[in-house]
Design a protein that fits this description.
10% strand
Length: 362
């Protein structure tokens, strides 16, 4: 890993290592104290697009102001790299006499980029470059605190909705609110008939067609100003076009929605994600971080009313829960939360009696 720290602010030495395909440089972290601008990103883009670098898999360049034109060029470079990777894999599968693994292009699978003033313009530009390949090879995308609004979220959704690779998406601290989630849903609906593989060909009619973000395992939406209305739409997105066909999603999701004003009404939407359906398929959420969501005792009552198979970790800290809510939760632990192994309920005024009630039900 190269951090890009040191006596000089220039990133020249780091970029030279990228261009020379240093096999020891796998994760590139450019600290905010460094000077990393338009020319530096264009240089990095060229190294990726040309195929000069085959070892780099992770880029972290958060905290740097980057112009939209350079972000678009960078996204396009990642798409070209993805197409090259896909072609190499196809050639390898055809030439079975070669044996061994695919040699050549590696690929950027983890990305954190841009500053807090990136905004919709920067997000849209980056996604324009990535759109031809449904987000290239990216598995992990961190766009936290980038001032993303509804237009940026719409474009982001349209780009990644059918990605076969994206497992982790961090959109925390972007106050797009429920309007943004509505636009994300719009992108999902519009993209269902326009899905493409990395090489630009259409998907076969497989089980992933009606599921947005089919590879998703972690979704971080903390501090996004999402209310109960947004939670209803989010549930629709994650459950798919069939609205309750959980069988189509192969991965359970770690969902972080902390510090959003979903209230007790938002828990009604959460029930759809957490509860087993008629086919016996359990929760699609394995970890739920819902601290500071103002769910109160009424929210606990709603959540405790059905069975939540598969849910292993629940964080409901700082949610205005009193003894009554703790008692309700305690009574439901055995039958409603059979797979729960970790419960966080700090900063709630449940008192010692509430603590004892919960401990006594375990």
């Amino acid at each position: 890993m190269a951090w890009g720290s040191g006596a000089f602010n220039s990133c020249n030495a780091l970029l030279e290592r990228v261009e020379k395909n240093d096999p020891k440089l796998i994760e590139l972290v450019i600290l905010p104290m460094k000077v990393f601008g338009e020319k530096d990103l264009d240089r990095l883009s060229h190294a990726i697009e040309s195929g000069a670098n085959t070892h780099l898999v992770s880029i972290s360049a958060s905290g740097h102001h980057l112009p939209p034109a350079s972000l678009k060029k960078f996204g396009a470079a990642l798409s070209i790299q993805a197409q090259r990777k896909h072609q190499e894999e196809q050639n390898h599968s055809v030439d079975s006499s070669g044996g061994g693994s695919v040699v050549g292009c590696g690929g950027i699978t983890s990305l954190a980029i841009g500053s807090k003033d990136m905004g919709d313009e920067g997000i849209i530009a980056l996604c324009e470059g990535l759109s031809s390949t449904n987000g290239a090879l990216l598995h992990h995308l961190d766009l936290g605190w980038k001032q993303i609004k509804k237009d940026g979220l719409y474009t982001l959704g349209k780009t990644f909705v059918h990605s076969k690779y994206l497992t982790s998406l961090d959109l925390s601290r972007n106050e797009f609110g429920s309007d943004g989630i509505v636009q994300l849903s719009r992108a999902v609906v519009e993209a269902t008939n326009n899905n493409r593989n990395v090489d630009g060909t259409a998907y076969d009619d497989d089980l992933h067609n009606n599921v947005a973000f089919p590879a998703l395992e972690q979704l971080i939406l903390s501090e996004c100003n999402i209310d109960s209305t947004g939670m209803v739409v989010l549930a629709d997105i994650l459950l798919g076009q069939d609205n309750n066909d959980k069988r189509r999603r192969s991965n359970n999701i770690h969902l972080a929605i902390g510090s959003n004003p979903i209230g007790s009404k938002g828990c009604e939407a959460l029930i759809r994600l957490l509860s087993s359906n008629e086919a016996g398929v359990g929760s699609i959420i394995s970890h739920l971080q819902a601290a500071q969501c103002s769910i109160g005792n009424e929210g606990i009552r709603i959540l405790s009313g059905s069975c939540h198979d598969n849910l292993e970790i629940l964080d409901i800290s700082d949610n205005d829960i009193s003894y009554g809510g703790a008692e309700q939760l305690a009574k439901s632990l055995c039958h409603s939360w059979p797979d729960l192994v970790e419960l966080k309920i700090a900063k709630n005024d449940i008192g010692s009696d509430g603590v004892m009630a919960i401990l006594g039900s375990m």
